[in-house]
């Protein structure tokens, strides 16, 4: 496997790094404190081509590969993991689903503005009673003439408040189990669509997470993605790519934690010398750096397989599992290295620690990633 970045990938990484460090990082702490959505940064991300990175230029996208996307999400998340997840969800969970399963009208009417960043996307799968067991959803879509009427509640929807278009899964045939689930694209303005309450969260506080209600929500027939009954597989395939994005988000948090901790350890003097001289601290850096490198390789491997159109479901799960656990580990170690200072809002590491935890939970918990990997192992040997 060759993981040397191409000149184009290095240029994209540099552009993302400059934007993230010069603009996004500046107000990240304040947005975290006030739970303010980074609308101005999302707009700029659209202008930079970061919102539809892998979408074909035919539909307004940048037509880039998954490695480039991973590089961008990592850089954004180093500055602000909330901005990273907004980018990841729009790209992986919404644009991917619409490009691969939407008809021409869906691609032109919905995918194009999402890919250019004029509009924002959200993904509605989970429900109050259906999280890890995704197919146990109860939201239903009933065909009445030229429209589906959707009824139900979705929760944990990233960008739920601020999005314009929503990829929504619902049963068109409840008795058929997961084979009766279908997927739709729904506009915020459709009759019967409403945004419910916004969650109060431990981390990624400037990315909004909301409940979405559907009460006889009228959705045109042509907004169905794929065929009736294909929705569960569409959601699963879409999540495979999403998990690469969340792994990249976790990697960004881990990398930021390491860099902050090294900077602090070189400055902080105890027992007459900077604490970076002590092996107790150096060993922490060794473990952080080693895990970060390993996470990066797993992520690149999953991205490369996706770009080569080879199976990547288990590889994406491994990347997300390892990178998210690395983010939690590295950010916790960073707080430890900062000592009492790390526990204060004066430094960014406490935010990294709070932000890291969600990467072990959303787009499939670590337990679900292990389940996906475990099943794959049994099929492989
Ligand atoms: N790609 C394509 N098809 C897949 C698939 C994949 N990755 N995974 C499963 N399928 C197919 C199976 O092949 C099977 O179809 P067939 O019977 O035709 O072969 C069908 O789907 C059912 O599969 P399973 O029997 O494996 O289904 P399961 O009920 O055991 O569940 C699961 C599998 C992996 C646990 C799945 O439910 C899952 O991933 N759960 C986690 C859900 C999740 O990640 N939620 C995140 C919410 S989104 C989010 O966080 C949003 C946000 O805003 C950030």
Account of the protein in words:
The protein has 381 residues and is of the alpha+beta class. The protein folds into 3 domains: 7-119, Butyryl-Coa Dehydrogenase, subunit A, domain 1 (Orthogonal Bundle), CATH 1.10.540; 122-229, Butyryl-CoA Dehydrogenase, subunit A, domain 2 (Beta Barrel), CATH 2.40.110.10; 236-380, Butyryl-CoA Dehydrogenase, subunit A, domain 3, CATH 1.20.140.10. Helix content is 52%, strand content 15%. The chain has 11 helices and 10 strands. The strands form 3 sheets. Strands 1-4-5-8 form a 4-stranded mixed sheet. Strands 2-3-7-6 form a 4-stranded antiparallel sheet, with helices on one face. Strands 9-10 form a two-stranded antiparallel ribbon. A hairpin with a 2-residue loop joins strand 2 (140-144) and strand 3 (147-158). The two termini are 22 Å apart. The mean pLDDT is 98. The chain binds acetoacetyl-coenzyme A.
What attributes characterize this protein structure?
single chain; 381 residues; alpha+beta; Butyryl-Coa Dehydrogenase, subunit A, domain 1; Butyryl-CoA Dehydrogenase, subunit A, domain 2; Butyryl-CoA Dehydrogenase, subunit A, domain 3; 3 domains; four-stranded antiparallel β-sheet; 11 helices; binds acetoacetyl-coenzyme A
Fold topology:
Elements: H1 7-24, H2 28-34, H3 39-47, H4 66-79, H5 81-101, H6 104-116, E1 121-124, E2 140-144, E3 147-158, E4 165-171, E5 181-187, E6 193-198, E7 209-220, E8 224-225, H7 231-267, E9 269-270, E10 273-274, H8 279-307, H9 313-338, H10 349-357, H11 366-380
Parallel strand pairs: 1-4
Antiparallel strand pairs: 2-3, 3-7, 4-5, 5-8, 6-7, 9-10
Helix pairs in contact: 1-4, 4-5, 4-7, 5-6, 5-7, 7-8, 7-9, 7-10, 8-9, 9-10, 9-11
Bound molecules: acetoacetyl-coenzyme A (CAA).
Acetoacetyl-coenzyme A binds at residues 89, 123, 125-126, 132, 134-135, 156-158, 178, 232-233, 236-237, 239-240, 313, 362-364, 368, 371-372.
